[in-house]
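Protocol check, entry for the methods section draft. Step 1: assemble the input record (protein sequence plus ligand SMILES). Step 2: submit for complex structure prediction. Step 3: store the structure tokens unaltered in the notebook. Ligand used here: pyridoxal-5'-phosphate. Step 1 record:
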Amino acid sequence: MDRIYLSPPHMSGRERELLLDAFDSNWIAPLGPHVDALEKEFAALVGARRAVALSSGTAALHLALILLGVGPGDEVLTSTFTFAATTNAITYVGAEPVLIDSDWNTWNMDPNLLAEELRDCAHRNRLPKAVVVVDLYGQSADYGPIREACRRYEVPLVEDAAEALGASYDGRAAGTFGAVGVFSFNGNKIITGGGGGMLVCDSDFLADRARFLATQARDPAPHYQHSRIGYNYRMSNLLAAVARGQLKVLDDRVAARRANFAFYRNALADAAGIDFMPEHPRCRSTRWLTCATIDPQRFGADREDVRLALEEANIESRPTWKPMHLQPAFDHCRLCGGDVSEHLFRHGICLPSGSSLTGDELSRVAGIVREVGARRLTKRKAA
Ligand SMILES: *Cc1c(COP(=O)(O)O)cnc(C)c1O
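Step 3, stored output:
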């Protein structure tokens, strides 16, 4: 049987035409008309004034922190339950991540823990330079109370929406809740350019600054003049052409991923001990990945039993993110809470979630998951 992947790229057909246009016009890289068009289309889609196309989501995070003036010795509050790109970027500017646990309702940063930590920081007279909130698995964090806490202490917010393009909160697009928002076009995201990232903001000053820093900080002069250090972070015109084709079918991709989630939830509705990632009432998730926790007592088998049974059937699944406070690279960081993300990591699994999955493939996956638990429960009863 062909391998079923977790979240493979899914081209629509338009990408090839746009890529060949870039190729034939000899706008190969760097930059070019597809980059300009992608920025306009992307900004319009998420409802931001400006968008700056970059080489990766990680580069966008790095520049976001520089734009907000984060530097050596500063503290930055961020989600512990995330992919390492978030905390890595904080260390690139010499700042210290302070890790905040998740809540049960969104699996993202707990607004109460954030408010408490900001209050404690204010008492210590050492407010963080920024807060970086992550939107995991296609769902935004609870931005009502999060923005209120940030506003109260006047700490700027960066939204890492790399996993949440197409999601919304109170009807407004994920990625637009901070001073700067960050997206990724990496190969396993909901749409892909084969790589790439996007920085969005409503400030012309910040957007122009991001472009300047991303093109080696070239001052306006006919010769190469540099009054500060820059980066080579712009997106290639070839990748932008592919990403433009993908952007046109984003709504279809979201619908397909949500349908995957609904399928799994229905197919496993009567299996005790599987709890799917909740959707917060103010959020509309893309269900980028279908995630669930597995309670070994009630289900009969644990997360690893399920993952290994799927692997044996040539199906890729993955544990949920290992929290940053459990990572050797970040276990020295200050931590607020931690039990929720540890539970989600210990018991959480991401099921195959590609938008090109067929009904047969979804049935195969669900059938194997159901069988692992049922088999063990029968065995347990017999013993
Ligand atoms: C993928 C991802 C990134 C990084 O994006 P790249 O384009 O791969 O650099 C950042 N944050 C989160 C939460 C991600 O999932």
